Amino acid sequence: MFILPNLFTVASIFCGFYGAVTAAAANGEREQLYRACVAVLLAAVFDSIDGRVARLTHTQSAFGVQMDSLADVISFGAVPPLIAWFWGLSTYGNLGLFACFVFCACGAIRLARFNVMAAESTGPSAFFVGLPIPAAAWILVALIIAHQAAGAAPLTGAEAWPLVSLLILALLMVSTIPFRTFKAQRLRRTTLLALVAVAGATIGVGVLVHPSMAVVAMMLAYLAFGLGEWIVGLARRAWADSNPLDAAESNESADPPKKGTT
Fold first, then answer.
1. How would you label 183-211 residue by residue, b for 16+ Cβ within 10 Å and e otherwise?
2. Residue 178 within a domain
3. I want to staple 142 with a disulfide (CB 3.0 to 4.6 A). Which of 8, 23, 215, 259 is the partner?
């Protein structure tokens, strides 16, 4: 039973390895780059399954945590910027090389910090610290797929948005901005309605525009949701610091929690 979740982790590594080989052999061909991007997306699917399988079969282990992080370094830290390099960032010269390296390095830092925090935690957390590396990889490869699907001209080195996108995603991974994990989220009516709305909007974008744009829209919505919650939290803390008496009165006047709730 301990082998079962690790098989999904190995499948994630295989998808990352296949994506790297395919991108390196693409030679600018859109179909090959598309396959490499899809391989990264599949790697993220296997990465999300292995942890759930481990929890369902009660086979969580320190070995599984370390192996999962090593797989993530390959499939989401190294392979997506490699695909981006063969996609067109090679035309930027040293700037493109630097942007790809920063994404890879920040991904490794993000995973090292996650391992340290996971070793110190006593249970599942409701938030990630920083943008999860699979989400950053999904956003990057989805942007590449959307650019290819739109039939846009190859990158010439004059466009700034590819470099900016990689650097922003890299900085978000090593930031302290909290992003929800949804692991401890209870399936309430509001949560179910939100999931249905997001799924409907994603399917609508995929049908009306392009399936790749559905992935872009879904991941950008997750990114915007996390940033929005962080900004609201900063605003509330700033208001509480500037109005300590009002904040204390608000806390005192709040209804006490009902018995049996947390």
1. eeeeeeeeeeeeeeeeeeebeebbeeeee
2. yes
3. 215
pLDDT tens digits along 193-232? 766 776 777 777 666 766 767 777 777 888 888 888 888 8
28: left (phi over 0), alpha (psi -120 to 50) or beta: left
Q: In whole angstroms, what is the distance from residue 259 CA to residue 91 CA? A: 63
- Selection from 27-36, 130-139, 196-205, 228-237 with the highest mean pLDDT: 130-139
Q: Give pTM, 2 decimals.
A: 0.80
Extract the tokens encoding 183: 């692991």
What per-residue confidence (pLDDT) applies to 163?
A: 93
Nearest Cα to Cα of residue 76 among 8, 17, 18, 133: 133
Check residue 255 and report its DSSP letter.
Answer: P
Q: For the chain, what is the domain count?
A: 1
Show the tokens assigned to 56.
């369902």
248 lies in some domain: no
> Quick check: is 102 in a domain?
yes
Alpha-helical runs (H) found in 57-181: 62-72, 79-87, 94-120, 133-149, 161-174
CATH of the domain at 159: 1.20.120.1760
